Amino acid sequence: MIAYQFPVEVHSHTIHSDGQFTVKELVESAVSFGYKGLILTDHNTSAGYLEMPAVPAVKDRELVTLHGIEWTTYFGHMLVHDADYDVDWREATPNTIDKYMAEVQVANGLIGIAHPFDMGSPICTGCHWDYQVQDYNHVNYIEIWNSNQPQEKSESILSYEFWLDKLTKGYEISCSAGRDWHRPDTDDANMGVTYLELTEEKLTQSNFKDALRNGRYYVTLGPVVQFNIENKNLLFLMGDRVHHSMLESGLVSVTLKPTELEALKAFSVENCSLTLWNNDQLIYQSEEVQDVSQEMSWNCTLPDAIEPGYFRFEIRGDFRGTKDTLIVVGNPIYLRK
């Protein structure tokens, strides 16, 4: 099975809220960066999306776009992606957020928690996630990386641990990276990139949304990854839901390639290692590979006993002067009993 990959951005802003881009400038910047998909998530408005069909890159299908909005409240920021209509967020309170999340689901929308551990009041009122969610089955993804240099932020560590906690509790929630793109960046800026992994050769609005819904993507600070597990004449990819026995004694293949995005080529990665996790148990750790300037790969065989829950991979390395940096985080394969 051939997997096709598409870098996308799912958290962006324009002059319709607090961004500096016009809609046309945002689209052109996205194409220039190398994105194949974009979701505009202005604060509490989706007005900018109405301008997108007239922008040449969108009209010519060079860039695939989805409707979005960032609910911006006193108790947290929530990304709502591609709902059929805008759900009214104004009456949501910390104890009633589940009701409003359920309404978004009825509207066929996807839900992401944005920067859950950013500083709140009085520095950034509402940026910290204070909603008391009762059922995290309403949530599709948690933004573990936000804005530029996410690897340097303590908030990223807390968000990553928040996501892992939800996985451990049995929720099938993906992790995402959001550039939270408001304005042109300086040359020394790096950011996390979300890579969709599809079996179709062409990105469309439909498979863009389906990949986000099902967790068929990974987040990276640059390198491009191909990940799969082969077992019993079947191939398993991120986002699959399978019986846990289907992975037992399976062959894991991971290929790592240098970034294909010009803006990130200045930031080299060294001394990379792969780790594999069955729930919160580390079941494989590779030796470090010093030189990752060329394509490289890891292969290993899984144990003959895999526990129900989830299976995932991540890659760490030295990045921008910091050792053992989280470089790539893959979304799980969910393992049913």
UniProtKB/TrEMBL annotation:
Every copy of the Polymerase/histidinol phosphatase N-terminal domain together lies at: 8-75
Q: Which SUPFAM superfamilies match?
A: PHP domain-like
Matching Pfam families, A to Z?
PHP
Coiled coil start-end? none
List the NCBIfam families: CehA_McbA_metalo
Which protein is depicted?
Answer: CehA/McbA family metallohydrolase
The record's annotation in InterPro entries points to: PHP_dom, PHP_domain, Pol/His_phosphatase_N, Pol/histidinol_Pase-like
Q: Which domain of life is it from?
A: Bacteria
**Single annotated GO MF:** 5'-3' DNA exonuclease activity
Q: Where is the signal peptide?
A: none
- Keyword vocabulary terms for this entry: Hydrolase
